[in-house]
Amino acid sequence: MASPRIWLAWRVGVFLAALAPLLFWSWQVANNAAGPEPGRYLLLNIGIGGLWLLLLTLSLTPLTKLTRWKGFALIRRQLGLWTLAYATLHMLSYALFILGLNWALLGSEIVKRPYIIVGMIALIGLAVLGATSNKWSMRRLGKRWKPLHKFSYVILGLVLLHFFWVVRADMQEWAMYAAIAALIMATRLPPVARTLPKLRYRYSR
Amino acid sequence: MLIKIAKPSDLHESDVTPESIYLSRRRFMGGMAGLGAGLALSGHVQANADYSDVPDGDAPAWLKEKISETQWRAVTPSNPDNDKIAPFDDASGYNNFFEFGTDKGDPARHAGSLQTEPWSVVVDGEVNNGGRFALEDFAKPSQFEERIYRLRCVEAWSMVIPWLGIPLADIIKRADPTSKAKYVRFETLVDPEQMRGQRSSFSIIDWPYVEGLRLDEAMHPLTILAMGMYGRELPNQNGAPLRLVVPWKYGFKSIKSIVRISLTEEQPVNSWQQIAADEYGFYANVNPEVDHPRWSQATERRLPNSLFSPNTIDTLMFNGYADEVAELYAGMDLKENY
């Protein structure tokens, strides 16, 4: 079972699953199935997709504790990098499709609009984590690596705040994501974190 | 000693436009080069052949008859090359109508559940001639006109849409406002059974959706009550069977599926103002110089657009209708009264 080939297939499968939505949305745009404002369609979908990826990435640690399945730990870095990729594409969609690559406008918007400032900080944070997710950085950072990457919790908060400020009339969707985020963060509370592995034994018996 | 100087923007009873002046303004408007051709008799017989690819609706007989007698192209953009009419699919498939959901596609998906027939509208408040009116009786005495207007959403996108309807002033005159009437307040239907968005327990909107206009804005000849678009009746997602269209204001002022029109002495609080007064004011005049707190209003994306040509154009003061409406706001600080 521990065949490296299966793990490779699992990682490739996850890669394709993360890529698939981007291909699907591009296909919709190419076939005029994305509405009269395809740029905004991409912007919003990629943004939500990025949030999904961030939540998935952060759920891998508690899932590993709960199941001890090696597969979850194996794709953590990949999903983290996918989160960064989606966040980058989200920002690029904004600059390209909404602002029409008007850099001066981008500059003034970044300074003026709190939700964009928060979004940019989250993106920069993800970029730092992405850049330090390789083995060399892990060695260099040593004990500091883990605390640094716990900033992903802060980034999750920033992303939800960014999203919150965009909502105009109905909180339902936001509340759903916030609840999932709260659940995932709750698994990090020491008493809960200690209980998770025990739950596993209870289930396996 | 206190000397009270009336601001030019203060309303007086005399501000209610007398019918004779109102009628002459309509003639004037129709003749204006800026708004193109077609008053009264000239364009009367032109068929709605332009909309042959628009799917037929299911209008009641009385509405079909009204539509067939429409005065086509009564108001058109001065530069039709710049202001091309949006495809029907886009105008009917990309909507904000939070009674049916917050996604742009939700209204088209879910508004089919709305029963638009029979429909009645209550006219009440400071009027001598109020009551509940069947939509049919509402429409019958007035001439249907086609008005091709720019629609500018507060979200910084815009479309050009051919509406069919009657001047709101017709309705208000028939209601015979009292001397106390200063504002007009509108209400959308509340019926969670038919409107799934109203069932959401996370909604910030306190139903019913409410909008309002100053009486002179409501009486302005550009302000219409629409009952159709693209040569047919309104699709439900576009506000069937009766909606307001105020082309120099952001789209959210143009309230949909109206069930109540009240003349009031006090300025009504509109729904968006109630939710976020710092973002959406009572006036909501299209104004490139006053940003929404979260985005600039200096430009707009004219839809449909494509990925690499966002079709960004400069937003015009009062959405390009400044010549017609600027006088309504003479002396007002539009940054203050946004």
TrEMBL record, chain A:
It comes from the Bacteria. It is found in: Cell membrane; Membrane. Its cofactor is heme b; FMN. InterPro entries: Fe3_Rdtase_TM_dom (IPR013130), MsrQ-like (IPR022837). It is a multi-pass membrane protein. Keywords: Cell membrane, Electron transport, Flavoprotein, FMN, Heme, Iron, Membrane, Metal-binding, Transmembrane, Transmembrane helix, Transport. Its main location: membrane. Binds 1 heme b (iron(II)-protoporphyrin IX) group per subunit. Binds 1 FMN per subunit. Pfam families: Ferric_reduct (PF01794). Residues 48-158 form the Ferric oxidoreductase domain. The chain crosses the membrane at residues 7-27, 39-58, 79-101, 113-131, 151-168, 174-193. Belongs to the MsrQ family. Part of the MsrPQ system that repairs oxidized periplasmic proteins containing methionine sulfoxide residues (Met-O), using respiratory chain electrons. Thus protects these proteins from oxidative-stress damage caused by reactive species of oxygen and chlorine generated by the host defense mechanisms. MsrPQ is essential for the maintenance of envelope integrity under bleach stress, rescuing a wide series of structurally unrelated periplasmic proteins from methionine oxidation. Heterodimer of a catalytic subunit (MsrP) and a heme-binding subunit (MsrQ). NCBIfam families: PRK05419.1-2. HAMAP family: MsrQ. This is Protein-methionine-sulfoxide reductase heme-binding subunit MsrQ. It comes from Halomonas alkaliantarctica. The lineage of its organism: Bacteria, Pseudomonadati, Pseudomonadota, Gammaproteobacteria, Oceanospirillales. The gene is msrQ.
TrEMBL record, chain B:
Keywords: Metal-binding, Molybdenum, Oxidoreductase, Signal. Its cofactor is Mo-molybdopterin. Its EC number is 1.8.5.-. It is an enzyme of class 1 (oxidoreductase). One of its GO terms (molecular function) is oxidoreductase activity. Binds 1 Mo-molybdopterin (Mo-MPT) cofactor per subunit. It catalyses: L-methionyl-[protein] + a quinone + H2O = L-methionyl-(S)-S-oxide-[protein] + a quinol; L-methionyl-[protein] + a quinone + H2O = L-methionyl-(R)-S-oxide-[protein] + a quinol. Residues 115-272 form the Oxidoreductase molybdopterin-binding domain. Mo-molybdopterin binds at N95, C153, T188, N238, R243, S254, I255, K256. Heterodimer of a catalytic subunit (MsrP) and a heme-binding subunit (MsrQ). HAMAP family: MsrP. Belongs to the MsrP family. Part of the MsrPQ system that repairs oxidized periplasmic proteins containing methionine sulfoxide residues (Met-O), using respiratory chain electrons. Thus protects these proteins from oxidative-stress damage caused by reactive species of oxygen and chlorine generated by the host defense mechanisms. MsrPQ is essential for the maintenance of envelope integrity under bleach stress, rescuing a wide series of structurally unrelated periplasmic proteins from methionine oxidation. This is Protein-methionine-sulfoxide reductase catalytic subunit MsrP. The lineage of its organism: Bacteria, Pseudomonadati, Pseudomonadota, Gammaproteobacteria, Oceanospirillales. The gene is msrP.
